[in-house]
Queue: 4 jobs
Job 1
Amino acid sequence: MFVETLSAQPSNAARFRTVSLAVAICMIAAWICGGYWYVHFYPAEKALILKGPWPFAHNFFMETKEHLFFVTAILAKLLPIATRERPYSDAAERKLVLSIAALIAITGLAVEGAGAIIDHGVKVALLRTASKDAR
Amino acid sequence: MVKLSPATSGFALAAAISVLVNTALSCAKDAYAPLKAVMKSFAGHDWTAQSLIDLAFSVALGLIFMNTRIAERIEPARLTASLIGAVVIAALGLAVWFAF
């Protein structure tokens, strides 16, 4: 989306509007699917993490991630509205769309990174249990 | 001065305010257990309730700003800077809150 906007022209306007709508739809899908997983399956993982050697994987990373996600989602909802303007003809409009796209990417990567640490929090908790059982 | 459309400016300002409200709500429910309990009783899980509150708040505020054309008076560059600033404050606020 960011790259599309950098090269925004009337000829690719339809494409970047479609891409911006796809971003919003994907984010809504992630909201529903991720939310379902979080509400129904995460409590068991949380219990494991908190008993394991990496409790900060929940206490800091999950707590921050689950609320930072809303920021990304709110921005993704704004994107298709902003691209209804003409970012190819006005610098201020282009900067707004570029900023929204960049913020979505940055907060999205932060959420993804936190997710990797949370997964590892579960893994190290399970490894510790398994190594105790092996002894 | 180039103006953004009422919809873009209204929803951009609404997004800037909504991300800050989201951070405030996250900290408030973490600090005050009865609020978390009320949110849980409302939607089965506090995270689900916060999802619905964030969504409803940002859409309602966007529609209000769009119809009243309040945000249209703000210079586009200032609106963009406000949105970036709000996201940075919201993200750092969450990180600092849950770090301590």
Note: The interface with chain B takes residues 31, 35, 38-39, 59-60, 63-64, 66-68, 70-71, 73-75, 77-78, 81-82, 84-85, 90, 92-93, 95-96, 99-100, 103, 107, 110 of chain A (CB under 8 Å).
Job 2
Amino acid sequence: MTSLRVYIITRALLTIPMIFILLTLVFVIMRILPGNPVLAIVGMKATPELIESLEKQLGLDKPWWVQYIDYISNLLRGDLGRSMIWGRRPVIAEIMDRFPATVELTIGGFIVSVILGLVTGVIAGVKPGGKIDATMRIYSIVVYTLFIPLIGMILQYIFGVQLKLFPVGGRIDPLVTPEHITGLYVLDAILTLNFPALISALKHLVLPSFTLGLVLSGVYTRLVRSSLIEVLSQDFIRACRSRGLSERVILYKHALKNALVPILTMMGLQFALLLAGAVLTETTFSWPGMGTFLMERIAYRDFTTVQGTIVFYAVFVALISLVVDVVYAYVDPRIRY
Amino acid sequence: MKNVLEVKNLSVYYYAKRAVIKAVENVSFSIGEGEIVGLVGESGCGKSTLASALMRLVPHPGKIVSGEIILNGKNILELSDEEIRRIRGSVVSMVFQDPMTCLDPLMRIGDQIVETILAHTDMSSEEAKKYAMELLEIVGIKRDRYYDYPHQLSGGMRQRVMIAMAVALKPKLIIADEPTTALDVIVQDQIMDLFKELRDKFKTSILVISHDIALILEISDKVGVMYAGHLVEFSSSEELIENPLHPYTRELLKAIPNIEIEDQKLVSIPGSPPDLSNPPPGCLFHPRCPCRMDICCKDAPPKLTINGRLVECWLYGDKP
Amino acid sequence: MRIIDLLPKRVWEKVRDAGIDGYMVVIGAIIVVFFIFIAVFADFISPYDPISPAGPAVTPPSPEYPLGTDSIGRDVLSRLIYGTRTIMMVIIISTLLSMAIGIPLGLISGYVGGKIDRVLSIIMDSIYAFPGLILAIAVAAVLGPGTYNTSISLAVVYIPTYFRMIRGHVLSLRESLFIEAARAIGAKSSRIILKYILPNTLFIVTVVFSLNVADAVLTEAGLSFLGLSVVSPTPDWGFDLKNGQRYFLSGYWWPVTFPGLAIILLALGFGLLGEGLNSILGGGERT
């Protein structure tokens, strides 16, 4: 068994306690913290019988450890319960309706943040200590403090209202919605060769992705910069120079590749920031993703759905960080062989 | 014999925040075709800085302040960045001290050799690859290890890879900066034998830099002794062993442990090297010199040539 | 006597020599002090009452209402000023809570080690890996609105941060050679703590604290924007931003822009302070 396979298995096993802890945490938050969810739905005027029957329906009359076991066993079967309000469809199905939208936005934001971060980080890293470097460092700090809703709204106003270049909200022009294959409009449009859908989807994606990506790019600026400085100070870079390789080759072929490897490990953590930022972005741009879904259900006091959505987030984050670690192990030959 | 390298009055200073460190001060020597020249001295004596200067690779905040470095007839200090880039690796190349850190960990070693070849020649990738495998054999590595990554090789093998890269374009001069310091003694021997082979096969000149004087004496035709940035003595290795001129050289030779003598006391030179940002007046060695005279404390010693040997010491000079 | 004279001499010298990092620290500190000042003296500075309407709705900035009025006619500037108090309160309470739980747990975990450390660490790491804002949303959704509830939501998010900081610090101190050296030359325990451990710890806490608060400001604003933090009519920047949203694209920019800028500025102040200090004092600390 290669060390890569061992690594993947070990890492996957480590994910399990993490997911477990998060699931428990969600349970604690939802059940044990003060506040009676049933009362919140039906209000103070409800009759005691109504309250009781609802509590029974939700399993809230059982002792907490029984509730906990039920909760975990349901989750292991992938059952996130049903909405307290629209009880027909299981929560997981409702989430999966909205999930692709968030994925699309997250990918868009990710791409923008990495590109911006790489460019600014490399500019800063090749000449550390100079004025340009200082500017880039300030950039990375300032950009993270840009409040997403404000930036989003400003961009909406300038590019949407004044310049009329991009739409102000929504995911696509409803008239050109592509055939549903993955739920990712861009991908589906490409797969079905639906040009108008592709254009519309991309146009709607620009402003939200840029907002999200801009704010998060600062994190990458710093990572790229410090990683690059670290790599450029290493002996093998000097050795490359002594062999007469040009500065350009050294930077792109050797330094950047080596600098990017440690950054991969950080990408898992940054993913959490992306998801969090996506909630604000979705709300600002009326983007029909998991974030707006969550807020909607909170407003309706639909606690089962809210709980299910948080659980989904937890599992999603854990899995992504696993994937990132595996990719890193694959890319770094020191682990692979 | 034509000289491959002529260094004339070379000075290299480091400009730190609050001080100027005179790492190399007014050094002159030359290396002939096919010669192995050794440069020896304590840590911090400036030998590594000198080596870097010979390829114009002195790291920031160092600067080559004055002098000439004439490599193969051309003063490299006057060349443009592009011209010096072309010379590096092809006319002069370097083997570094720590093979662990000198190879790109993400690239197969064979590909790294090929990269160097392709940067300086018009060969096709296949030709370069074939040549790289030949080079691996020359330095004693099996061809199929072309596809390995650096971390899969031992320290000695990585050093050989570096040597392969250094030799690839048949340079006139190879600079080996502490080539065996990070390796164990058996491997040291092998590497040194390899150097001798390469010199015989390719007629390359080699500049070996080390603090291990025994190693230097064994392999070099000529030896230079450095102290605190000054080249205090330069002569053939036989003459150096038989009749060391400079007091520092004598102390260095005394300090070599002899495996045949029983109950030998470890000899070291009392005192420590001077602070190069604030050097003492006169001869920099005078605080530790057993032959110290009055004038040594006041005036810098002159550079003298005695029977073709260079030495910088008042013992041989005309006192004013 | 200048404020500079109150600082330990070495710190001030370092700040001055540090170039851009020094500027960051100074500017950050000025911004933070500025906001603290506003929060403390709000009653004296604010031209109007932030809760009741002061004029006609949505009037643009004018000499009478320097930053304009919002959708109900309340003076934006006054709400901005009192909003400083709201956010400061939330930040202070939540930070104290996070520290009260995170620091002792970190101390225990780092000092005792073993199984306790492993269990606590994996719990804290899992929480830390989860998106902060979403966790805050979950807690806020259950607790309901209100300043104190919001503080609790934020506190939960940042407990792992303080935990990790203290734990890492304790671990590195345990191994620290200079503590051994100090003991070897016979220094008394109390002297060791005072002279070596405390200053070191203080610096790290300040850096982590600043960077954390910057993040907390943005998270609180995020919660407010999503409608989960304060009860109307409490003046709160994020809340006001949300209320102004529907007018923004029609050109009524001031109810949104000024609270938004305030959020950014306060977060920036703490961020610059934290980053600058971090660089000066050696860097390497991460939240």
Note: The first strand of chain B starts at residue 3 and ends at 15.
Job 3
Amino acid sequence: MSFVKLSASALAIAAVSATAAMARDNIQSAGSSTVLPYATIVAEAFGENFDFPTPVVESGGSGAGRKKLCEGVGENTIDIANSSSRISQSDIDLCKSNGVTEIMEVRFGYDGIVFASDIKGPTFAFTPADWYAALAAKVVKDGKLIDNPNKTWSDVRADLPNQPILAFIPGTKHGTREVFDEKVVHAGCKATGAEEAFIAAAGGDKAAGKKGCMTLRTDGVSVDIDGDYTETLARIDANKTAIGVFGLSFYQNNMDKLVVATMSGVTPSVDSVANGSYPVSRPLYFYVKKAHLGVIPGLKEYIEFFVSDDMAGPNGPLAAYGLVSDPELAKTQEAVAAETPMGPLN
Amino acid sequence: MTDATASVHGSLFQADARTRRRRAAETRFRAYGLGAVILSVLALVFLLSSVLGNGTGAFRQSVIRLEITLDPAIVAPKGTDPEALAKVTTIGYGRLLDQEVIAELTAKGIDTAGMSAKDISAMLSKEAAADLRRMVLADPSLIGQTITFDAFANGRIDGYFKGRVTMESAALDSNVSPAQLLLAERMRDAGLLRLAFNPGFLTAPDASELRPEVAGLGVAILGSAYMMMIVLVLALPLGVAASIYLEEFAPKNKLTDLIEVNISNLAAVPSIVFGILGLAIFINFAGLPQSAPIVGGLVLTLMTLPTIIISTRAALKAVPPSIRDAALGVGASKMQAIFHHVLPLAMPGILTGTIIGLAQALGETAPLLLIGMVAFVRDFPAAPPEGFFDPASALPVQVYNWTTRADPAFMERASGAIIVLLVFLVAMNAVAIVLRRRFERRW
């Protein structure tokens, strides 16, 4: 009984409030927790310097944000989706079926992914091949695929410290994991020539070979972290011998607790990511619903402000927080000013 | 004991084996109970001491007092009409601070050797430039004058005076240098820098990751208050009406039983389910705005309703039937009997249940995740009723938000927010206890 009454009254309230809900004057965005700190920094500065309300920024993950963007056009849908990975064809199709035909893709910078361990422990110098040999479910030994026997880092490569392997890596819902799989594990698999063994084992199937490369062992040596980097940090605090995967900006905020490992001899920093010598990095994007430009006040000004040199430039506050500035920022600025929608994915 | 007959006809003063066993069992049981109590008290003490130890720092903040000359060349390069003034962004004011802070320190005779103007102004919160800009826009006559200006110290400098940052950690940290900490010490000795009570923690809005020192709970407290208002206004009348009907009027049949069972079930449904429901009904179907207290309030109403109905029905049941019979006996209608006699006597119980339900709703985070209230919101919502539709945050959400931030300074603020939340909860529960003690009647 109460439920019937309740839904009736809720609908009544909704009907009354429909008029009030119509005129939204603040920008709403949602998505990647990696992009969140950058988006909040820009939103804060935007609210301070412009006559528009401060945009509302939600987190929730890249995929969830893009799905929300594609829910449709109208004031009760979001304007911007923040994303730490590129939009997929299935998202674009979903958007189209809901009437969101024009999306602007804005790449505003790069983010480095670093490997770090407790500050009191030894320092590591990794190569992607080390990570493949340490974490993959199957490795090649004497030309045959066998279950991964490596227990310590010195088993992986003799000049690494003699410390048990334990890695906290981002869970599969994170965009960071995709980069880790692609640019570290898969790259290492390729470099050691193990990928060919996998392809041969799968009867020449390349996709299966790649999948074999990126299948990680499940004997507790690699631990998926579904929470944020703060959780990874707490786990490393409790497990001093573990190695965690972090975003460059997170590491830069916790340099007194973590020591960073080099990758293929390069120390991760804003500079080494920017010039491409540090291999593990990824672009950061936000996606704008073009139909909302000119409808939601301040939206155009906000995205122009986001990619301006004052914000996303190499000396701006985003770079100070750990964003690797995009060398082609000027091109992005032009595209934003011209409101160019994105073309089909290539 | 050695003799079988002695244990049957033994002395009353000498306990036999079975009595001793029974007594031992009783002693053991008491020890278990006491142990359980001690364990839970220890857990509470541990929780409170960790929260209080981490969180009290959030109520005090390092403040730097500066004399600043508002140089017209930077602040008003194109004249002082409001439009031209608004064109100067906080980046411009940042340059003003670069220039003024080093001049001020030199004038006060504080040694700044080896540090650039940027290093020194980086010790101030990034909010300082925004504050200055607001002051100038509000009162353009300040331009060209020298004003006394209180700026928060940067989160790391503040952490140094609270023991979170040390010289050793600063040496490893790219965001602060030991030279800056030494300068901060000299500034404190000269009386420029002090730790002061920070009312902004309760009144200011959230801040981005670059400015942990100015982040506050203002929007979250307001958002939680709005939601509680909505829950109270909707859930109390609905819940009471439903329980009176079910308890006093409803025919006893299968349908009523089914409804009763379902209400008890609803009370045990995980709160995230109400969030999913809220997203589907209130946002996607009814088209209410995201991140707004109205949606949060409606979802929490759904969640609180079963609690209120169950406690109201218990309170109504506790009123003895003789009261109803007496009222009906002197010719009152059923409704008069209920509203004049039963309901007033059940009121303390109903209010207690309502307050406990509200306290539960106040601490709820999971359903708010789905309706977009776990967000970065800096603008205060307007006064109700329009404010119910503006974006806002909520207290437990703010705690969650701050624990996921990279800067360790946010840990302190999250603990501070927990303290505020606990104070609200304790106050509400205390009111519930007082109501029960004062007004509840037992028969």
Note: The mean pLDDT of chain A is 86.
Job 4
Amino acid sequence: MAKETETGVEAKQDAISRRVSAAEMEWQEKILKPALERSPERRRAFTTTSGVEIERLYTPADLPNFNYERDLGDPGEYPYTRGIHSTMYRGKIWTMRQFSGFGTPEETNQRLHYLLSQGQTGLSIAFDLPTLMGYDSDHPLAEGEVGKCGVAVSSLADMEVLLQGLPLEQVSTSMTINSPAAVIWAMYLVAAEKSGADWKKLSGTIQNDILKEYIAQKEYIFPPAPSMRLVVDTISFAARETPRWNPISVSGYHIREAGSTAVQELAFTLRDGVEYVEWVLRAGLAVDDFAPRISFFFNAHNDLFEEVAKFRAARKVWARVMRERFGAKNPRSWTCRFHTQTAGCSLTAQQPYNNVVRTTIQALAAVLGGTQSLHTNSLDEAWSLPTEDAATLALRTQQVLAYESGLTEVVDPLAGSYLLEKLTLQTERACYEYFDKIDAMGGMVAAIEKGFPQREIHEAAYAYQRAIESKDKIIVGVNEFTSCEQPINILVVDQGVAATQRRKLRELRERRNHAQVQSTLETLGNAARTDQNLMPFILNCVRSYATLGEICDVLRRVFGKYEEPAFR
Amino acid sequence: MTASPIRVLVAKPGLDGHDRGAKIVARALRDAGMEVIYTGLRQTPEQIVNAALQEDVDAIGISILSGAHNSILPRICELLRQEEMEDVLLVVGGIIPNEDIPALKSAGVAEVFQPGVSTQEIVDFIRTHVRQKNAPAG
């Protein structure tokens, strides 16, 4: 009997359960049983990378009553399980968008130009930890950290250097920035404006997903409520001013990197998406005014079929959520557009060239899963930021897949696989189970305050570690097939970066209009205490060359700082 | 007579928020019978050494993946010397290039655990190298 849950899922009892046919029973008796007696399988049970049990064989019995039109549908059509476009890569190959950034804005600018010259088709900028945390390069807490994990950007001046000579109206730019996303985005917008670009033509993304910071990446500054306010402000601003910009990239990548299963990655990400939609609706926007520009960011881990199922389930769940839960009418509000990054956490320090193989499999999963944009990790991921050579090989990996493998010629080529269709349904169902749990807790912010997603992730991470240490799970080169290690060349960020950045800040503070800076900062502080959209105020601070740290300090004073509850 | 459990402070210095490894190590040490205090994120060297002093720990485990180890670890070592806590075992895990290890060890780091190490190796190292504690009287 069909049952509608709050999330609109029909929980048909026979939807996923298996009815073995007479022919299959005969096969089990006559063929399988003797084979197992002669030669038992290697393990008692097999699981996916995430620990989901996987069967020996999938047949039509796994998809009873499967109806193509009702349960799958065509690409480019609700619920988009087979892809958000009808032609997918036959029309346009996914954007090759390598995450890059280190040292000074000058060095990163060079790397961005280099990658474009080597055929990458989108830009993606990585910032250093001080920048990510809203500190200038000369802050005491920035000691030792400047330029190490990404590029140091403390002011509009740095952003102008970073973007120097880049064709901003022709190439989209993604910026991985969260807590201070509004400020960094303001710097980008002003730098673009000063270089003559039209905001209406700017294409790109800011990650701006604070919920996953509380859950997984932990680069938060302010408490949840004011942080969500900043996200809402940026989404509202984008809806009016930058029609081609994605003001948020709701992310599962980091959740997976923290050790979650594939289902947890999917469920927590999409439920974060639901939370953002709810907050923006409460601020008074109509869903179709902003939902088309919500984008997503997923991980591509090792288990090919589990990952492809996850991507397909993501599209199906999000489409239903947007149409049924939120009543969106514009089909562009229903589509789960996403960027994917191959799994950094799966890459090893030992035998780093094995990582090229892992990354290839993961990239394959992302493409078979219908990603819009892709970053492939470099072989030296476990050692340092990528060298130029390693970054080039990672890009070439995508290019070989795109041009030599035949992958782009058919839309959703694995559809119809009994395994894949069943896994897609199972993943979808498991996702809704998490939605129900989180809804019952009062939503995602409430669930985070209770520590729920954080605990789920930690348990999964610990189980995975135990599986490796017991050799239940083999990692080639690490717990099996080890060999004498040959060191590789790694990128070393120039020691002089911090001093250079500090000098630039001194010079900036000397030449700018001090009174104007103070005035814009004060006005921002006052506005932050009201419920006005803060983007115009932040833009004014940026235009006066107030630094990232100065702007964030104002917000820290008004919003306070967040500390997570102790881990027991 | 049983010796009192080994007390370990697991700490995340610097701005890095990636705590998957630190939490796994903390749990593995607890499962191995040690008493573990986890400092949480974004601790300064001063806060870490102060916590180690307050908690009277036998070992400190630092987790650092951000590349700031060459600034942070010597500072921690210096503070431990100032507090006359050099017999507290100091170990580090995270992203540390091979080239940096000798200098860290000279500064006072007992061992560096790079990606791929097992929690069992960390447990064994701490058990073997931590200062010997007196068993309680009686």
Note: The first helix of chain A runs from residue 22 to 38.
